[in-house]
Specification:
By secondary structure, the protein is an alpha/beta fold. The chain has 19 helices and 17 strands. The mean pLDDT is about 95. It binds ligand NAX, adenosine-5'-diphosphate (ADP) and potassium ion. It comes from Thermatribacter velox.
Amino acid sequence: MHLVTSDAMQKIEQHLCQQYGIDTLLLMENAGKNVANEALSILKEKNLKQVIILCGGGNNGGDGLVAARQLLSVSSAYPVTVYLLANPEKLKKDPLYNYRVLKNTSARIIEVASVKDIEIYPQSLVIDALLGTGLSKPVTGLYRETVEKINSARDVFVLSVDVPSGINATSGAVMGSSVKADYTVTLGLPKRGLFVFPAREYTGKIKVADIGIPIILQEAFPIKDILITPHLIIEYLPERNPDVHKISAGVVGVIAGSPSMLGAGILASLGAYCAGAGMVVWPLPFSAASLVKIHLPEVVTPLVESTQAQRYYMPSVAEFLGKNFAERKCRSLIIGPGLGVSPATSFFVEKIVQASSHIGGVIDADALNCIAGERQLWKGRLSGWIITPHHGEAARLLGSSPKEVAENRFEAVKQLADYFQCIAVLKGPATLIADPSGNIFVNPTGGPELATAGSGDVLSGVIAGILAQTGKHLESAICGVFLHGLAGDMLARNKKEITAKEIAYQIPAAKKVVRDGQYRIPFMDGD
Ligand SMILES: NC(=O)C1=CN([C@@H]2O[C@H](COP(=O)(O)OP(=O)(O)OC[C@H]3O[C@@H](n4cnc5c(N)ncnc54)[C@H](O)[C@@H]3O)[C@@H](O)[C@H]2O)[C@@H](O)CC1
Ligand SMILES: Nc1ncnc2c1ncn2[C@@H]1O[C@H](COP(=O)(O)OP(=O)(O)O)[C@@H](O)[C@H]1O
Ligand SMILES: [K+]
């Protein structure tokens, strides 16, 4: 599903008016009618008694004015009160037109000079039409007080028009203060910011309303942001042929672990198997291999020589390992979980990535930190790899701070993919995946339950496991992230405390839910 920024939405709207000669008034009418229809269903379903519509001075407020008229035209059962937070004399074009028309109806229209003028009774449907995509600065003064009044009202249902007022429709940030909605009717095309945090805590369920933007026009604009839907994942799920054997099913090579962090590699290997890889090959020194066998006997552990107490891999073995992975027909690799960070490890990472770039795969965790230490050296050189940083690792890779990354996630993931010319997975709530051409995919699955040690190791394994089966980098990253999140969501239905191993074991069930067509995005109303 394509997502739009505020800018893109404005351009599409302008194009529609110029190219097709459609008046913006018609779009506003369609928007308001859609809102009124949703409002009517909610009024009935929730057994509410009246409607309170809060309108700002722009087009979002105009939508609210149309909704008021449309509601009154289809039902006289619900009194409608409109609070206008603007001087009617200062209204422009479409909102002004709709204000004048509404004056001729039975709607109560109150011009708000102070927040005390606003009365919100229990059992009301509150329609928030204060601010939409035109939000350009933090919400302050009367608007802020109104937002806070809405949020503190009890026993009401809040429907936001287009976006909850105060949410930046492009980034998902809260600009000072935002309405906390129970339901958001987003107009025409879904706004990108609604699908990431913190916005997702403010939208309630999201419904996309058709306001008459032709599909052909949507396709004419190069929209690069996409919400990952189950329809997309069904296409990307790896399927096994009946005549498959363990090698043709997909072999994953692993470079992971150190004496203090062997578990990271075990979890990554488990993730790869649970995602359907036919075999996992993890070269290790004898002592470490013996330990791995106890926990995961399925892993093949060719012996590697190490004279070091702190690490398993010496730079001198990199070339041999690269060749060995190719001989064993590895179709993807996982490099990084639990490797530790030291100058020697950095040198080893540099060599192993080079020696195995013909295979490619996932670079995660400590290997990312090694790369970050020499970021200029790696510019444009990770083609064929998928990197999976969390915010801290991403900040190191970009030479910025975790705060900057957290505040500009779309930009950060795009920069990572562009700078290193790879597929970048920026982990965290609503994980983002970008490719070097600037496409960004937003993941709807996964919640705070996933924040458990080793969860990221499992994710790198799942992605590499899918890649070994399909050979498709972007698709594997998208599919892996989605399934990992869905596995967490499924486990979280029964308990909130989950472990990384459980996430891995839940992957096949997550796959089945998608394959059977049973999955719906929980915070969306309709597909
Ligand atoms: N783009 C489209 O295709 C359509 C847009 N429509 C509606 O139009 C909205 C966008 O309308 P506008 O561009 O008029 O913008 P808004 O209605 O979002 O904002 C209106 C005004 O608020 C002011 N403003 C910005 N930030 C503020 C703040 N923090 N506190 C107080 N005032 C602030 C701005 O100066 C702007 O003039 C959409 O969200 C949607 O609801 C619909 O009418 C249908 C079609
Ligand atoms: N609050 C959250 N909501 C959704 N997903 C989360 C949240 N916190 C963590 N995750 C997910 O859990 C995983 C954690 O990975 P990572 O930080 O690398 O952990 P570790 O290093 O312990 O394995 C990532 O897939 C991330 O997206
Ligand atoms: K709004």
